[in-house]
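Hi there,

I know you've been waiting on this one. I reran it after we fixed the sequence typo, so this is the corrected version. Both the input and the resulting structure follow.
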Amino acid sequence: MPHERALEAPARPPLPPGGCAPHLPSVPRAVLFDVDGTLVDSVDLHARAWQEAFAHFGKRVPYREIRAQIGKGGDQLLPVFLDEEERERMGEWIESFRADLFQREYLRHARPFAHARDLVRRVKQMGLRAGLASSAQREELEHHLDLLGVRALVDAATTADDVDRSKPFPDVFAACAAKLGVDPRDAVAVGDSPFDAIGARRAGARAVGLLAGGFPRDALVFAGCEAIYADAEDLLRRFDGSPLAPGEARAGV
């Protein structure tokens, strides 16, 4: 049977060994940005592409259930809706069809969130390293780099080629931190889904949540976000009191 299609927040993961890293400075060394739903308004587009891909292979899945899983890569999303036999028989076909469909029909409709580029630039102005922690296909990430206009601002980025497992596993955040040359415990991850927060915390990083991706505030808090903001613009506006800045007030939650 497929995994349970729960819409509620995933169970809070355990803290890394030793709890929140005690050596964390008041100013992190790096910020690890999720892309889809955080910097780029694309969650609905991904959900529609998955729904269409499932339907193409005769699998009818409600849109709402698919959307609640966006933030995971295909390796983690498919087991929610397909049992083992289905995954072996058509899992790779569905994922390949979806990837091609998204590139052809949906990617061009993605738009950057207001002030997303300004937020990344502010991170750089603070002397922090900026990374994009994504498990998207390389072509998709290249498109988003141009869409956001952040090529000159981003110090490192990950794609599906860099990891074996997508969120909520910690691989993406660990790989991005490694590319930046920092310990994940010296980084803050910014994402829109509970899967971002879980993956970041499992890697040892702190997590900040944005509501722009459509996940409930409670789900983000339950997953481990220590501060919540409406979107990139809101985080930028309240940057000085956020976990990304000195003298953080932690007033976002």
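Quick highlight: Residues 1-25, 248-252 have pLDDT under 50 and may be disordered.

Best,
R. S.
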